[in-house]
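Forwarding these from the shared drive since the link keeps breaking.
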Amino acid sequence: MSTATITPNSSQLSTGRDGFRHLLRAEWTKFRTVRGWVIGMAVSGLVTVLFGLLAASATHSSCDAPPGQTCGSGPIGPAGQPVTDTFYFVHQTLTGDGSITARVTALSGIITYPQSNPDAIVPGVEPWTKAGIIVKDNTNQGSPYAAVMVTGGHGVRMQYNYAHDTAGGPGLVAAASPRWLRLTRTGDTLTGYESTDGRRWTTVGTARLTGLATTVQTGLFVTSPGDVQVQQGLGSGAARHHTQATAVFDQVSLHGQAAGRWSGDGVGGANGTDLERDHPAGMTRSGGTFTVTGSGDIAPVDDPGRDIERALIGVFAGLIAMIVVATLFVTAEYRRGMIRTTLAASPHRGQVLAAKAVVIGSVTFVAGLLATAVTVPLSERVLRANGAHFFPVATLTELRVIAGTAALLAAAAVLALAVGASTRRSAAVVTAVIVAVILPYFLAVTSAVPTAAAEWLLRITPAAAFAIQQSVPPYPQVSGAYTPSNGYFPLAPWAGFAVLCGYTALALGVAALRLRRRDA
């Protein structure tokens, strides 16, 4: 990229009260008058947009989604997020306020072809198997609900509207240690209780389901998610094995304005897998005892298409261009000897470095923000035109991904500037910063290293900042493969970004120290 000779005058670089403001103005003038740098920033934004649109253009889908669903996303929950909503439901109609009580006396299950015995269907209960009582707006997938349940390994829980989970008492259910459950409705408020003897009750949690229908479905349910096994070696991945659970209920009582007889339905379908053809889901009743078998899950989707992240694939190409521009913003002055003029006019060398960091960080942030803010909605339109759909996320999440990606680009650019001020070698700096910021990310997400090593790379290297792009959080109550290769980071979005900021601040400190101690 070409450079131009800009000679700042003493009024621009005065060190009086407005000295730093004049430094900012001088550094901005330098940047905008060097055509190569301006073009480099424009190119970085352009490739970010173009690569994102190419990724969207390459995605095609053709399906006839049921009402309330989008192609590839499944049912949509009350908060607008894709959810899994598949279970066996033994239910009656309840109008207005009321309560349901039941005792769970047994919970068993089977797991297909686990890693320990890949040729067999073996007895076993997946830890997030759920069996309990539920109040649900209707039997449609994605409708509002609240439930209190026993699980295969996490004790009693109260869950509602898919994403919300509250822990109750620990322990497993057995004939010698049954668990009583109760769920009451008062208006829009549902409260879950548990008991070991049916006399002394403990509150598990409370949920408010705004807009819950006056007439709802309530009853017993059983569901069992896939058993996820994460492989830790090179080329690590995850396998999900089908499971099924059976629970035994008795002492079932329903209070309030109930109507109809107990009936069983497979919400989301039942008996559609090879396992269920030999081990069908359903309900059997003997007097007051219900034996219910089911599989599936009631939870947020844990393995989405991650369309926002896919739309921002061009960020990597844009980041490389921005690193090059940020490096040349300081090393070009050293190469041409202009740094002597700059430092002679401003004896406060740390302020000169700070002014350069503010200018290159601001320019990069604005360019990145424009690029990402254009890419995401345009990619969504392209996907819809191709018959596909954006994986829906909350508005605040989308804003965080867009603005956070721009902040990531800005921090990486300032890092490159700081390393360039310390070493003064353009090619070495560009290579080093790319290796530090981008290479660990690709090693982690492509399973080029074991999962444990990938998680450490995304904790301790600047690549941790890419966590800012994670649009779907890991849910502790979901049996999921929360690994880098599946798009999940070991640090929270802003915590990961803070790691990059820490490296950048350290590099700026080292650069300021070296700038003071050596000649230009």
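-- next protein --
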Amino acid sequence: DMIMTVAYSMVPGEDRTRLHRIVAERIATSPSYRPGQDDAHVARHLELAGDAVSSAERYLRAATHAIDVGGNADAFRQLSRALKLLPPGDHMRRFQARRQREEILRRLARRPQQLRELAALRKEAEALGDPQKLALAHALTAQFYIDVGKAPAASRAVAPAMQYAREAGDKLAEADALRLRSAIARLVGNNEESLRLCEQALAMCSIGAGGAGGDSSGSLLTRATILNNQGTTLWNMGRLELAIEAYAEALVIYRALQLPRQEARALNNMGIVFSSLGEYEEALAHYKSSLKIDQALGDRSGIALKLGNIGQAYADLGDVERAESYLSKALKLGEQTGDPSSMADAAISWGQAKLARGDAAGALELLERGRELATENRERFQEIRGLQYIALAHLDSNPEWSLDLAKSATELARKMPMIVGITYGLAIAGRALSRLGRHDEAVAATTEAVAIQDQQPRPEGAEHVLYWHACVLGAAGQTSAAQAAFARSEKEIDIKAARLRDADLRSIYLGSKTPKAVRAALGRD
């Protein structure tokens, strides 16, 4: 290295410039030249030859290739070089570079840097005076605030995004702004409004596709993004079969467009719904496929979420040891990336696992932390989950406090609406009322929970609600009704167990808390 450095410094400046230009040309025109992959080498020689603009163009090409193959660090470095070389007045290419840097920072979950990049992106868009670019810059800002759970800031950002989209006459950008408004509505717990806005966005997307002369890749991508959002809202509302349909269509589009990151998101979301349906093996398969893609692409912001979901699936199966292993990693990664959404989800799920293990103190610490994060970020779904599991943790020690928490959770769930939140909330309230000796009220609460659950084709957590209902009926002296409820719970357990092809997983599930308690109540053990 020293010899090379000294020899290089001895070449006259003019000769060095000429030789770098020759080397750049030879690499670029060589039969073995690989577009994108070799452009970083070409760019470096052009930069040393003093050709700043051509060098920046090559760095941009190299960065696009690096992003495609998951080289986030390389891409970010190349984009940074391009920004240094591009003239201050070249706002179009500077906008392109900053747009790609923002995407990388989002994947790496570097939130403060991402926010600064968004501010710089908006400045470039303003300098261009292009309403399409302004719409995109403000839409990305709104998405940032949605990702970090700040609904008011997201609402402020989405308004100009919609205004500029309309000014540009860009129906797809307008559809995306409607999608963002839908996500904000869901974030604050207004699922009906969220669904209505999704329908508007899909209709607008169809208009945009027609105006473009058919379903272009852009219109398909916008449609898939909206469907993904719609699926999440439907899942929150307990409409699980419809949620699967929305996610499945989005997945088909992402695969057709060869977009692995979006494919990973759709796979993960399908896993969530399969888990809610009690299809735990399907859920785990989808989660792990999604995690593999994120790991290959270096998408740290997605890895924590997938680890948390895998942990939650194992917790639901009763495999507490494996659940805690995944959830501890998810929480640690969420802390490292500063992602409050992943942290809240992992903390609440880990608290649930500890509660199943019988560690009430450890569970409460995690549950309270997760609930606080969810409340701060206005994530109603996680806030309701947190309240309900905290209520369960206090059931034996402080049933009055447990009742208050369950009522608060049920009220929030009714406003969304969130069906599983309503049924769980009512059932937990019923158990607390039973502990307090208020048996008529307890039976009324759990009976309502079961009635709401029976209206759903494949309700989430049916075996637990029926088991709690049976316990309340038994405490109220309604023995025969209690036995009938225990039998219904056992039937739900058997259905879920039959879906588990893996004998070990089936054995773990049947040995978990609720299945064991139901069998004991029916005299099967």
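DSSP finds 27 helices and no strands in the chain. The mean pLDDT is 92.

- D.
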